[in-house]
Amino acid sequence: MIKKWYFYTSLTVIIVFLSYSFKPLKLDTNEWFFTKNDDGIQYLFPSLEQEEYTSLNIPFTGNFFIGFKEAIGFRESENKYKKVNSLGYLGKYQFGNETLRSIGIHDTQKFLRSPKLQEKAFVALLSKNKSILQDVIEKYDGKVVNGILITESGILAAAHLGGAGSVKKYFRSNGRRYIKDAYGTSIRSYLKAFGGYDTSFIEPNVNAVVTL
After folding, report:
1. pTM above 0.70, yes or no
2. How far apart, in Å, are the Cα atoms of 18 and each of 6, 22, 23, 98?
3. CA–CA separation, 154 vs 165, rounded Å?
4. pLDDT of residue 2
């Protein structure tokens, strides 16, 4: 009887010891993966809180360019390459026919079938808009306009939504003019939501076209 008691007591001690020896895995995230925001203005993306991405269909990518394009793609179409909206805008990034022609794409069906072509089109349009808006970027990047910290990526996102001309009109009014698309989405909201990403590698080229 004493031997059984000794056996079970020893087994209990071993189990308790092993239980306290293992700790749950903790995910460490490097601080360099984020952009700092010292003025108190918060954006939807990028975020310092990784858990904010758990309910979204986009990866947690900090302020890298891949995060910028995936966030815009999700906002425009939920990243659906074959989506055509009620106004006829096409693909993951919701291009209009006129915009596609301006970057050298004339076959819309081929465009819808090719994710690779759509990604190239997105970069080409960024390059074109960056060239057109170079003066705006140089003047306002890093400044606060109408309560929003302006960044290059926010300006390029706003141009994707409403065109470079509309972005120029917005800044000429010092942010007081309310400019929106047909669905009611404002340029101001894109300046805020997509600020802080790294788009520095995009080369400005007013004649940018997609090479197949």
Report:
1. yes
2. 18, 7, 10, 67
3. 15
4. 47
